[in-house]
Amino acid sequence: MTDINITIIGAGVIGLAIAWELSRKYENIVIVERHNSFGQETSSRNSEVIHSGIHYPPGSLKANLCVEGRGMLYDICKNNGVGHERVGKLLVATSEEEIDLLETLKKQGEENGVEGLLFYEPADIKRIEPAVNAKLAIYSPDSGIIDSHNLMSYFAHVAESRDALIVYNSEVIDIARKNYGFEFKVKGLDKTIDKFTTKILINSAGLCSDKIAGMCGIDIDEAGYRLHLCKGEYFSWNKKILNHLIYPVPHKFSLGIHAGLDLNHDIKFGPNAYFVDEIDYQVNTEKEKFYNSIKKYLPVIKLDELSPAMSGIRPKLQTEEEDFRDFIICPESERDLPGLINLIGIESPGLTAAPALALYVAKMIDSIYSNL
Ligand SMILES: Cc1cc2nc3c(=O)[nH]c(=O)nc-3n(C[C@H](O)[C@H](O)[C@H](O)COP(=O)(O)OP(=O)(O)OC[C@H]3O[C@@H](n4cnc5c(N)ncnc54)[C@H](O)[C@@H]3O)c2cc1C
């Protein structure tokens, strides 16, 4: 049985960012990942947008960590050659009712500390994006795009260079509280089971983070930790005529079917949002539905120019009845599980927030160690 100091479950962008941050100062850190490489789930199935922080309620972790994480992310990218571009975003209103919503969003963004937001009239919009049709837009200069694989690779390599260990093909299947911390079982590729002990356990298992909390003995319904899977699909467009991200006004469960760019300025539209019972990444939605949403702000688009591209699944705490749920980032000493930190519901803007969120978790670990 191996004794570990800090175990992180999950090598998505969140687990990797935490390992990157903690490995500055702590030794004997192990990331346990069930796949054969990092970033095989939600961290590689998203829009790869660096969000500015307009969309989240002031004071929430989503708002604060997004704004802080965005600044950190641009510095990390610039200083370490991680692919990115500060392309800017237009958040567009295509009807009179949506204009009121834009005003609310601009105020909210400013309250969250997002700088440089401007209203663009139709003539300003046409000047920078001639194909886009809107009655008014918010221009957000600090929104950008990032190569998320490149970012995760940077976090992983730096953490490993500081002696953190990433153990692949290893699924955590059981966890027991012990007086020194936790004992957990890991199933390997050949179905062998190994046991480990750890003082600190960080649950950043994405879509399975509620199940990991359950393995630790937490009643996930009573705690409000149960996740609901909310799928988001994308269609690609065979044209390259945009230079900015184009977002419609947000929908209750997502930021809306936007036009996203990759670093080659290839365009993908998505994600839509609907709840599912199982993880399945096939694109099932008819393209007419996408087309009807997109043509409101991009009338030049033709139905036969869209092709199914990819999908991702949001680990949502919010049910269909709820309006908003914040990230859960919770040290569990009050549940008599000292040394456990649960990260649950890390949906968007988790990629943008990752470095700030890692710093937030590191402060929790410092406080756990100072009380040992
Ligand atoms: C459609 C969509 C679009 C998005 N767009 C954006 C965007 O543009 N900008 C933005 O900032 N955010 C965006 N997000 C959010 C962002 O992608 C996530 O917040 C982020 O990727 C979450 O990372 P994670 O490490 O928590 O989860 P994951 O990437 O899912 O990583 C969790 C890891 O845990 C592992 N794991 C799970 N269970 C176990 C176990 N029992 N044992 C071992 N390993 C285990 C998994 O294999 C996985 O590798 C989007 C999300 C979706 C779904």
Q: Estimate the helix proportion, in percent.
A: 25-40%
Instruction: Kindly name the structural category.
Output: alpha+beta
> What's the architecture of the largest domain, going by CATH?
3-Layer(bba) Sandwich
> Unreliable runs, pLDDT <50, ≥5 residues?
none
CATH topology of the largest domain: FAD/NAD(P)-binding domain
* Ligand roster: flavin-adenine dinucleotide
Sheet of most strands: 8 strands, mixed
Q: Please report the distance between the alpha carbons of the first and last residues.
A: 23 Å
SSE pattern, N- to C-terminal: EHEEHEEHEHEEHEEEEHHEEEEEHEEEH
Strand element count: 20
Radius of gyration: 21 Å
| CATH superfamily annotation of the largest domain | FAD/NAD(P)-binding domain
Q: Report the principal-axis shape.
A: elongated
Indicate the mean pLDDT: 96
Number of helices: 9
Indicate the CATH class of the largest domain: Alpha Beta
Q: Would you write up a description of this structure?
A:
The structure is a single chain. This protein is of the alpha+beta class. The protein has 2 domains: 2-45 and 149-225 and 324-370, FAD/NAD(P)-binding domain (3-Layer(bba) Sandwich); 89-141 and 228-316, D-Amino Acid Oxidase, Chain A, domain 2. It has 9 helices and 20 strands. Strands 1, 2, 9, 10, 11, 12, 19 and 20 form an 8-stranded mixed β-sheet that branches. The protein is elongated and about 65 Å long. It starts with a strand and ends with a helix. The relative contact order is 0.20. Flavin-adenine dinucleotide binds next to α1, β10, β18 and α9.
